[in-house]
Sequence to fold (468 residues):
Amino acid sequence: MVLILGAWASVHAQKYLTKEGVIDLYSETSLFVIEAKNQKVACILNADNGEVAASTLVRSFKFKEALVEEHFNENYMESHLYPKSQFKGKILNFNQINFSKDGSYNIQIAGDLTMHGETHPLKTTGKLTVKSGTITASTEFLVSLEEYKIKVEEQYKDRINDQIKLTVHFDLKPM
Amino acid sequence: MKVKYISFLFFLACLSSQMKAQDDLLDMLEDQIEEEPVEVAYTFKSTRIINSHSIERMKFGQLDFRINHRFGQVDLGWRELWGLDQAKISFDFGYGVTDWLMVGFRRSTYKKMYDGSLKFSILRQKSGSKVMPIALSYYTNMGINSEEDDPDFTFSNRLSFTHQILVARKFSEAISLQIMPAYVHRNLVNYDEENDAFAIGIGGRYKFVRRVAFTFEYFWSTAAANNENIYNPLSFGFDIETGGHVFQLFFTNSQVMEESGFMTETTGSWLDGGIFFGFNISRVFAIAKPRHE
Fold:
């Protein structure tokens, strides 16, 4: 009876997916602004329980200056050692959302972010909009380079802010 | 009692299926993503190993501005500041017209030569879902000697041409190697030289700390083999990368920086005091924004 219930629940879970989610990366100091854009973020949302997972290649972050991109990959993110960054979490107030009707909601998201081989809890707020069957989700949060063991040499600390702003925008379609 | 037992089991089953579902969701997502081959990047720190071009190129909109120096013989002593007073330079621009074509322009002190070049990135080393073990590029240049000369000499006498294939592999984060065969044609040569020359070069780098690499480069050429006054260029030194620049410091027996010159007209010998200190500075500027697909 329990097994049947469990199987039924997973078959009928409504999931939403994107493979072209966008994350903008931003760091500003008095000397230097660093900006990058990633347009190849994958994200999946389980509407039945609010669970959400996202994954992307670090190499998909593109910078205007090839030199900054090279340092980002080779020296800081070490993408040859840690090629992917992932998030595993949940929309805490998912049962306030009616996924079958157009509407806009403020959401709270909590989960674990894995980056540069380090996993730390992440909690943030965002916005979710249901429109004609598509879900648009957006959020913005800060990550600390030190927390994720990303080493910035002393002489570059005035050019790279420890707090990096990540702005996320996903357009999810039913799977 | 039995009801309590069954509902406890039910609770456990739901809990474990919940935890497994979270991992399942990430796995399900990873299954959805088609794995694309990853281009192996940063085989060398810049577009040159020492004298020779490397398979590194400028991506679309990026400009590599270089100032290259070769000083006089180091054995000239302190009065000549170990060769510093006899500096020869070249300044050099390399621009990414597309992600796979780099256009170059350079002016060198040696023979007051202007040269224009093209470097095509034909194969890029790839790993992941589709493996390409090497990167391969084709480099070609045409040089124009602009020295004042005998009025009997024609414009065509001033020209030289280089064709070169560059084959490189990044073996690890620390070690990259490159082999580069070349063909050089100089329209006007001395009576004891040939217009055509073939050469084969080998070069590489060993990156032993985050921003510093040891580099070496050697060319064997028919020009040196057939002429006792011409030598094969051997160079080695260090690449140092800072926030915005790449500095290349090295010792070499060739004072010439341009391809048709260093492969066929190297007159210095390591065994005979013909050792020169050289340094290249490279800075990359972003001229145009990268196009997003």
Summary: Chain B has a mean pLDDT of 91. Chain B has two domains: 1-32, 40-286.
